[in-house]
From TrEMBL:
Protein name stated in the entry: Acyl-CoA dehydrogenase family member 11
Any one Gene Ontology BP term: fatty acid beta-oxidation using acyl-CoA dehydrogenase
InterPro entries: ACAD10_11_N, Acyl-CoA_dehydrogenase, Acyl-CoA_Oxase/DH_mid-dom, Acyl-CoA_Oxase/DH_mid-dom_sf, AcylCo_DH-like_C, AcylCo_DH/oxidase_C, AcylCoA_DH/ox_N, AcylCoA_DH/ox_N_sf
Any one of the GO CC terms: peroxisome
Length: 652
């Protein structure tokens, strides 16, 4: 189907859904197939079978804790009532033969077919929505422009299947069956790997599927966690920053998202704003306390936890889509300390997302859980002082595999949290020393480095326009023959850029919406200042130049917000790759807009706008930083231009 035309794929997927629907609604008793299998206990029986196969395939591998987690989950959460029907057992596009018009001519490979729960077939058919196209053996659709390809989005696929079958309970059970298929697939892959290591491989790719088996099990755990949240297709949906899903409901804003935004706004107004000046003054004034957490924050954070406003950036906690969380991030942007009060501050949010998506059970227990409690802090080491970091493949830091583990060398800077007193872990991204023959974006890896650690030296804090941003801060850090075990890899060797893209897409939405929050507050302050101050016989708000500023700022903020929300919606619909152009555009627009709005507010405030008495100068510094952070504007402009040219050439 991937080599077909757009029209053939459109028709093909219509017929794939029809074929699955016809199979699953077949009156098997009327067709004389009552004895085709034993439907009772199908799920329980299969979970036991695949676990036994997995355990028999561990001759050359350590046991993966994620498989035990999935086994327990699948047994504890089986649907109370299983639907019985014909199950193909391996219902994939690869097992269908198509006509030139996209019709399904035949379905092959019926070795696993029986009577049982047909939703397991649907889970397998829909698995490619959450795997990358270049995934070895499996392939996938994640991040692809599905509309351009003629392939229905996940929710469209599901809606069509439900319409044809009447199986309305499927949406709320889907994550269970996705988990089931990940569990089964991981067991199969582990078997292939085991046979390859034993010299009896059934696949030429056998050696590489050991890592893949672990990745699939990890994906299964993600589906299981979403199922446990019970919000897979609830009101307003539950699009994920990790899987690129979007809500079953297509409404742009949900009552749940609006209610959460209002709760966060009220909390900030009542709890955060009253302490903002005092908390920030500790960092502005320097001295012995500069790099300490202000004690006033402790009480506010405890109240946020009790109010259920903690870790809201994580969909598995909040149930928010990217679109819904975007409005929450805007509210947090109104105060320089708000994100911290909800444990939604960078770089910890991005690092937690990485660990949630790609971390092993041990890595999650060691770092993710304490990060979610904010009992530790983390840093992210990517940018380097010795190269043009606008091209990330220039990275000169190295990762060398030895018998003893991994040896890291290089210098990083602008590592946020690098000077934080509670820093306990750094994610180090470097180039694999033996990667010359690999594709350009498969030459780098990410590694977890505990801190403090031999060979890791914080050289100095870095200031932005004089601001240290203590205790968060930014640092230059040297890695000199730092040795860590091979288990410190995140995901796997060569996965650095894949992880970076998964981390950066939603993160850019958060940054841009916080800039909108800063701009909104700046405009509010400018209007109040215009009402309070008089010059040359009239209030500042009545001067035409200032009134034009108010109007132009309102238009700039609102138009940028719409652009960012559109990008968030596209991520929810098809993943970050599907929204590359939109993400690049907002990364250009939001900092420019915020700088202009904040600059005008400073002008209306006069000298006070440049002082620590108002947040405006600090807002401006942050906006200017974001013209460089997560990729400079010039790189994003070039990316947008390429897409524009490509669209015109395609006639879009």
């Amino acid at each position: 189907m991937m080599e077909a035309t757009k029209y053939q794929r459109e028709k093909g997927y219509e017929n794939i859904i029809k074929t699955a629907s016809d199979l699953h609604t077949l009156d098997y008793e009327g067709a004389g197939l009552k004895g085709y299998g034993k439907p009772e206990g199908y799920l329980k029986r299969n979970v036991e079978t695949w676990m036994k196969q997995y355990e028999a395939s561990l001759r050359f591998s350590e046991r993966d804790g994620n498989m035990d987690y999935l086994y327990q989950f699948l047994n504890d959460n089986r649907p109370e009532e299983e639907r019985w029907g014909i199950v193909h057992g391996d219902l994939r596009v690869d097992n269908m033969l198509f006509s030139e018009e996209g019709g399904v001519e035949a379905v092959v490979d019926w070795e696993l077919s029986t009577l049982g729960e047909p939703f397991t077939d649907v889970g397998l058919l829909m698995t490619p929505y959450w795997t990358e196209p270049d995934m070895p053996i499996i392939g996938g659709l994640k991040g692809q422009d599905l509309k351009e390809m003629g392939i229905p989005r996940e929710e469209e696929f599901l809606e069509q299947y439900v319409d044809k079958t009447g199986f309305k309970e499927l949406p709320e059970q889907l994550d269970y069956h996705l988990t089931f298929n990940a569990f089964r697939m991981s067991s199969i892959l582990q078997g292939v790997y085991d046979r390859a290591k034993g010299g009896n491989a059934s696949s030429a790719q056998g050696e590489q599927v050991g890592k893949l088996a672990g990745f699939v099990a990890q994906q299964g755990k993600m589906h299981a966690k979403r199922f446990m949240q019970g919000n897979r297709f609830g009101e307003g949906g539950s699009g994920s920053a990790f899987s690129g899903r979007r809500a079953f409901s297509t409404s742009a804003a949900s009552s749940k998202g609006e209610e959460l935004k209002q709760r966060v706004k009220t909390f900030i107004d009542e709890k955060v704003m009253p302490i903002e000046t005092e908390v920030l003054s500790q960092g502005y004034n320097g001295g012995d306390d500069e790099w300490k957490e202000h004690p006033l924050l402790d009480g506010v954070k405890e109240e946020a936890k009790k109010a259920g406003l903690w870790n809201l950036f994580l969909p598995a906690i909040s149930g928010c889509s990217n679109l819904e969380y975007a409005s929450v991030a805007e509210q947090m942007g109104r105060s320089l300390i708000a994100s911290e009060c909800f444990n939604c501050q960078a770089p910890d949010t991005g690092n937690m997302e990485v660990l949630h998506m790609f971390g092993t059970e041990e890595q999650q227990a060691t770092y993710l859980e304490p990060l979610m409690e904010q009992s530790i802090r983390s840093g992210f080491g990517m940018t380097e002082p010795g190269v043009a970091s606008s091209d990330a493949t220039n990275m000169s830091a190295t990762i060398t595999e030895t018998e003893d583990g991994l040896v890291l060398n290089g210098k990083k800077w602008w590592t946020s949290n690098g000077c934080h007193p509670e820093l306990k872990m750094l994610i180090f991204m470097g180039r694999d020393s033996d990667a010359d023959d690999k594709p350009r974006h498969q030459q780098h890896s990410m590694v977890l480095v505990p801190f403090p650690h031999p060979g890791v030296t914080v050289e100095r804090p870095l200031k932005v326009f004089g601001y240290t941003d203590a205790p968060h801060g930014h640092a230059e850090i040297n890695f000199d023959n730092v040795v860590v075990p091979k288990s410190a890899y995140v995901a796997g060797k060569g996965d650095g850029f894949m992880i970076a893209q998964a981390r950066l897409g939603p993160g850019r939405i958060h940054h841009c919406m916080r800039l909108i929050g800063m701009a909104e507050r700046s405009l509010e302050l400018a209007v109040r200042r215009g009402e309070e101050r008089t010059a040359f016989g009239k209030k500042l708000k009545d001067f035409q130049v200032n009134r034009h500023y108010y109007a132009e700022s309102r238009m700039a903020i609102d138009s940028t917000r719409l652009m960012v929300l559109n990008a968030a919606k596209k991520i929810d619909e098809g993943g970050a790759k599907n929204a590359r152009k939109e993400i690049a555009m907002i990364k250009i627009m939001a900092p420019e807009m915020a700088m202009k709005v904040v600059d005008g507010a400073m002008q209306i405030h006069g000298g006070a706008g440049l002082s620590q008495d108002y947040p405006l100068a600090h807002f401006y510094a942050w906006a200017r930083v974001l013209k460089l952070a997560d990729g400079p504007s010039e790189v994003h402009l070039d990316a947008v231009a390429k897409q524009v040219i490509r669209d015109v050439e395609k006639g879009n």
